[in-house]
TrEMBL record:
Region spans: Disordered: 1009-1054, 1069-1094, 1108-1144
Compositional bias ranges of the Basic and acidic residues kind: 1117-1129
Protein known as: UDENN domain-containing protein
Bias-annotated ranges (Polar residues): 1074-1092
PPR repeats, residue ranges: 795-829
GO cellular component, one term: cytoplasmic vesicle
Organism classification: Eukaryota, Sar, Alveolata, Ciliophora, Postciliodesmatophora
Compositionally biased spans, kind Low complexity: 1033-1049
Cited SMART domains: dDENN, DENN, uDENN
Length: 1144
């Protein structure tokens, strides 16, 4: 789909007023006008003409005139002239509306030049026309006879015996009441020779089906019969539905409107009714093929059918006389077509559109429909509700997060469990799992679709790619006999027809709550089956033989409300979780049985090559062909699952979700893996546009209107919420997991998160140094070893990032080595990791285009931090003062005050009498490469989980190239300096953050870090950095772009005072002062295990971190004093700078 759309089309289906066609009439374009007569042709008159033997009568370019030669005798030819008033939808301009309903042949009494017809039998004689002037007319009525003057006798023109006083007359009867049906077609059928059972050749006339005939042989050889067909009662005819309206007017190139929708709206064709039946609403599913992607997406159509009085045009064509209370009504279908199964919301929208056309509304329906189709965005995955208001309804649309189960409306599950007992549901579900034919039977169309969707969603992580027809039209009834697996919904009446149901089809009678399985199916594993049965009994035992909600599901406006149910206990999330748990047990440890390429460039193409099925079955003790798992592994959907799982791209989060379900342990406190999701934001959609209408305008309709193009309006711009298919990191990083951690686990998690951020940023930046990929991977492995020594094992995400980076750099051997190392450490790769690995090994892709975004310092503005930044000589001051009590918090205090959260930016003062929450900050002292003035700035001190979330949000929003952008440290300073601080704290190399790091220095940097033992920072003798005499003013702004101070010049005295204050703060953590971290009597700190856990994890790191940065600060202070004379040349402070320094 080019642009994600909530709804593709609004369409209206019903009778074609110009030419109603029977649903049993062939509908080829050429047949409409010629080969097949419409059911509603009307013959207005008949005449007989006599010509000489050598004359031939032909219609003179008229569609309404037809001639048949019915006899030839004594050199004369007799022709039947048929005049149509309406033929194939065309109406003759001079037609008076009368039509013939009957043709008969009588011997009528005659008197002179007159024939007599009884008054009780209203016949019209067919005149016999000859050349010249002919008089044929009604003369008078006498003695219960109508007298007609003229020639009507055909006795001498056909082979018939003359009787004195009588004449052989062809008569017709005209429709006088609505109960009479006109003749719509006349044929002359000649008899042909046929061999009978005795072998004798006899002439036989084959009368067409549904035709009557005159039992009198015409023709010279008495071998032709006049046949005619009467129009059936319109109330007994099933008409073909056609599209009446649609919006938008033009089809989308990527998803044209399906031409078969009308068949599913009216499965047995359109039938007229003498009653105005109540509206019904249901949904159905169509499967299409995307020619561009070759995918087979499913289309969801929601349809509301209502009845309104037939139009005058249709009434005239069908010879229906509308007289109250004997009115005739015809159905129409309002449809919403979408790629998304929001069938409950669509149901309510159609009900409101139906209500609006019956009421007075301030804007026309055209504007309502235009707003609905073009101005309501598709929601994103798990973040935003889209709110849509129509009429008196306020509806909400939301999609689950990408890392979640496929969308399944709760209504579908509810009606499944309302229709069948739990044991029967499990049996049917088992048959779906082994790809049996499933025949759903119900008189309720909505119920068929609800149950079909539920069954196909409950087989997660598998996908049903076989035939799925939730409502089968009568015209496609032969689909039931197909040999392929299917899920098909039918009405009970369809099965009573000439249909041979396959013996292996499972019949599911949803109305009676019965399941008929004629062929045995494999039993489910005992323990998982009992567990599934018990769980479903606890949360979804709602079946009842007499369920008014289920039986009235098709009714659009049902009086029986769901709230009337007593003791209704249904938990859809518990149902989903029960089936996910069963699948988790059924496929336990399946990842272990994937086969990996043994050499670079080797490519697997299907499930047989990449999965060891015999070993998998042996592991589960399911080697026998009658085992349930054995049958499952033989299905095409299992093969598709394995192939998708193996070859999946990284963004296949649905499979990753199932891999997480395999690892989940259910407890009393946390019994469900499948949990409800609650989008954080709500995005109200635009109201229908009323521009161009006067205040107080009203619109009212007598019937559902034809849409007026002049009332449509150009759509307004809307947000593209569904533009990014990947899940927002905030959806994957949830606080509930952190809240359950102990203090020790939390402290360990902080360190692991720092490592994860390092590997994430390191892997992204590898493309900047593509020529030294091997050296960088060696450095990453060395960091992994350090992690293990410190009790922090690298997880799957870290390996995946490195594998992906190696793939981009073309290091296939390293890819295989990393993958093998990961598996040797007991990490079973999930779907994302498998996809990344296969792509890296098989595809052999070179570096991505992100490498083109390497920093180009020439393009930066003159005040960019990147131009002069020397990250190697940066010093950090990581303690801060409480704004309330002025207590000076050390690094441990700040870290202990963080909440276990991915979204809280504050820390808490540890003093007992304060407990103030505030955003802590750390100071950055940095020198420059060109010997210019140093800079000092304050940056918000964020927790590692926050840094991880912000980094992933940045990548999610702007892509990985944002880290390689030339102005990364300028645009994202909070993130940049927090990453630098944490990497420095854990002694991790962060040269890739340095915009001035030259590529040819990489081997030396890596070699020094890996091969040489690290010097104690306390005894370092590195040359002092070249500090200057000006510093930054300090800003307390919280925004990411302005949280770091800008440049300003100030006096040397002010600068020295400020820098001395910062340097003194280094010492407070070691000696104590007025605002020392050693509290006074009235500043006692709260006793907690937080500091103990953090000190145990971070103690050595923090001590070395303080010492190294203190030495840098002291060297800076000494050089700052030596340069005091030179600083006198600096320009004086401006007023704004002085005020900021005085406040500081």
């Amino acid at each position: 789909m080019e642009v994600p759309r909530l709804i593709d089309y609004f369409a209206v289906y019903g009778l074609n007023e110009d030419m109603p066609i029977s649903s049993h009439t062939p509908t080829f374009e050429k047949d409409k006008s010629s080969s097949f007569a419409s059911n509603f042709n009307a013959i207005s008159s008949l005449r007989l003409r006599i010509t000489n033997e050598d004359e031939v009568l032909m219609a003179a370019k008229s569609d309404f005139l037809v001639f048949y030669e019915i006899s030839c005798k004594d050199g004369k030819r007799l022709w039947l002239e048929i005049v149509y008033g309406r033929i194939n939808g065309k109406v003759r301009g001079t037609w008076n509306g009368r039509s013939i309903s009957k043709i008969e042949l009588y011997k009528l009494p005659s008197q002179g030049s007159h024939i007599k017809i009884p008054v009780s039998n209203p016949l019209d004689p067919v005149p016999v026309m000859t050349t010249g002037t002919n008089v044929h007319q009604y003369s008078h009525t006498e003695n219960d006879y109508h007298y007609y003057l003229g020639n009507y006798d055909i006795t001498d023109l056909v082979v018939a015996k003359r009787i004195e006083g009588f004449k052989l007359v062809l008569t017709c009867t005209y429709c006088e009441t609505s109960g009479q049906t006109p003749i719509n077609d006349i044929k002359l059928v000649a008899a042909t020779l046929h061999q009978n059972e005795k072998g004798e050749m006899k002439k036989v006339a084959l009368i067409p089906e549904n035709y009557n005939y005159l039992n009198f042989p015409f023709g010279k050889n008495r071998d032709s019969y006049l046949c005619f067909r009467s129009t059936s009662d319109p109330l007994n005819i099933a008409f073909k539905a056609e599209i009446i309206e649609k919006f938008p007017r033009d089809d989308y190139a990527d998803s044209p409107l399906n031409q078969a929708i009308h068949m599913f709206c009216f499965t047995e064709g359109i039938k007229l009714s003498k009653e105005q039946l109540s509206p019904t609403v249901f949904s159905f599913i169509l499967t299409t093929v995307d020619e561009n992607t070759k995918k087979v997406p499913r289309i969801y159509i929601t349809c509301l059918i209502f009845y309104e009085m037939i139009s005058e045009t249709i009434a005239k064509q069908m010879n229906i006389i509308q007289t109250s209370p004997n009115n005739v009504y015809m159905p129409k279908a309002l449809c919403l077509v979408s790629h998304w199964p929001f069938i409950d919301q669509f149901r309510e929208i159609l009900k409101e559109i139906y209500r609006l056309h019956l009421s007075v509304y301030e804007i026309p329906l055209e504007r309502v429909i235009c707003n609905l189709i073009q101005e309501v965005p598709l929601p994103d995955q798990g973040v935003t509700y889209v709110q849509y208001s129509i009429g008196r309804q306020k509806l909400f649309f939301s999609r689950p997060p990408a890392k979640n189960l496929p969308y399944l409306p709760d209504t579908c599950l509810e009606y499944l469990f309302r229709s069948l007992r739990i044991s029967d549901i499990i049996s049917v579900w088992s048959c779906v799992m082994v790809e049996r034919k499933i025949l759903l039977i119900s008189k309720c169309k909505a119920l068929l679709t609800y149950v079909a969707i539920a069954l196909t969603r409950l087989i997660y992580p598998f996908k049903w790619d076989q035939v799925l027809i939730s409502i089968l039209p009568t015209a496609l009834k032969n689909y039931i006999e197909t040999i392929f697996p299917y899920i098909i919904g039918v009405s009970p009446t369809m099965l009573s027809k000439d249909i041979e149901i396959p013996i292996d089809a499972v019949r599911v009678d949803l109305d009676a709550g019965r399941v008929l399985i004629t062929e045995p199916f494999p039993r489910l594993p005992d323990k998982p089956y009992r567990q599934l049965l018990n769980r479903l009994t606890d949360c979804a035992n709602i079946y009842s033989e007499h369920d008014l909600v289920r039986d009235n599901v098709d009714e659009a406006f049902c009086c029986y409300m769901r709230e009337n149910d007593e003791n209704f206990n249904f938990n859809p999330y518990a149902v989903k979780d029960a089936f996910v748990e069963f699948q988790s047990q059924l496929l336990r440890n399946y990842q272990r049985f994937f086969l990996m390429p043994s050499k670079a460039g080797e490519r697997f193409t299907d499930a047989r090559q990449c999965f060891n099925t015999p070993s998998f079955l042996a592991y589960h003790k399911s080697n026998r062909p009658d085992n349930f798992l054995y049958k499952v592994t033989e299905t095409s959907m299992f093969a598709n699952f394995i192939e998708t799982r193996y070859f999946a791209p990284e963004e296949n989060y649905e499979l990753s979700y199932f891999d997480e379900a395999l690892k989940f342990k259910r407890t009393k406190n946390d019994p469900y893996f499948v949990k409800p999701y609650f989008p954080q934001d709500t995005s109200p959609s635009l109201f229908a546009n009323d521009i161009g209408f006067e205040p107080g305008s009203v619109f009212q309709y007598s019937s559902f209107p034809r849409l007026n193009d002049s009332l449509f309006i150009e759509p307004r711009r809307i947000l593209n919420l569904a533009g990014n298919s990947a899940p927002k990191p905030a959806l994957l990083l949830k606080d509930d997991m952190l809240m359950r951690m102990t203090q020790t686990e939390w402290a360990k998690f902080l360190i692991t998160t720092i490592y994860r951020v390092w590997f994430m940023s390191f892997a992204i930046c590898m493309s900047r140094y593509k020529d030294y990929g091997n050296e960088l991977i060696g450095l990453a492995l060395h960091i992994m070893d350090l992690m293990k020594k410190n009790g922090n094992k690298p997880d799957e995400e870290i390996y995946r990032k490195l594998i992906e980076a190696c793939g981009k750099c073309g290091l296939k051997e390293k890819v295989m080595s990393l993958f093998k190392r990961m598996k040797n450490q007991g990490i079973e790769p999930d779907a994302c990791t498998h996809g990344v690995y296969v792509s890296a090994v098989a595809a052999g892709q070179e570096l991505s285009k992100q490498s083109d975004q390497i920093i180009n310092l020439k393009d930066l503005p003159p005040d960019s931090l990147c131009l002069t930044l020397n990250l190697d000589d940066v010093a950090f001051v990581a303690n801060d003062d409480c704004p309330n009590c002025e207590y000076n918090l050390t690094e441990e205090d700040i870290m202990s005050g963080w909440e276990k959260s991915y979204s809280n930016y504050t820390t808490r003062c540890p003093t007992a009498n304060c407990d103030q929450k505030f955003v802590a900050k750390f100071s950055v002292l940095l020198s420059s490469l060109d010997g210019t003035d140093p800079r000092a700035m304050k940056v918000e001190f964020l927790s590692p989980p926050l840094i991880r979330k912000e980094l992933e949000n940045l990548i999610y929003t702007h892509g990985e190239g944002s880290m390689l952008a030339k102005d990364f440290c300028d645009k994202h300073r909070i993130l940049y300096w927090n990453m630098a601080l944490y990497f420095s704290l854990l002694r991790l190399p962060f040269f890739f953050l340095n915009p001035n790091c030259k590529e040819d220095k990489i081997p030396d940097i890596v070699g020094n870090y890996v091969k040489q033992p690290r010097e104690n920072p306390k005894n370092t003798n590195k040359p002092a950095p070249n500090w200057g005499y000006s510093a930054n003013s300090v800003s307390d702004d919280m925004s990411d772009k302005s949280s770091v101070s800008g440049m300003s010049d100030h006096s040397n005295h002010s600068h020295n005072a400020y820098m001395d204050t910062i340097i003194t703060n280094f010492m407070r953590g070691r000696s104590g002062s007025k605002k020392s971290s050693v509290p006074s009597d009235n500043q006692s700190t709260k006793s907690s295990t937080k500091n103990a856990s953090l000190k145990k994890m971070f103690g050595n790191y923090i001590e070395d971190f303080r010492s190294e940065n203190l030495n840098k600060g002291l060297r800076y202070s000494n050089e700052d004093k030596d340069g005091e004379v030179e600083s006198q040349r600096k320009p004086p402070l401006g007023p704004s700078t002085k005020s900021r320094l005085s406040r500081k």
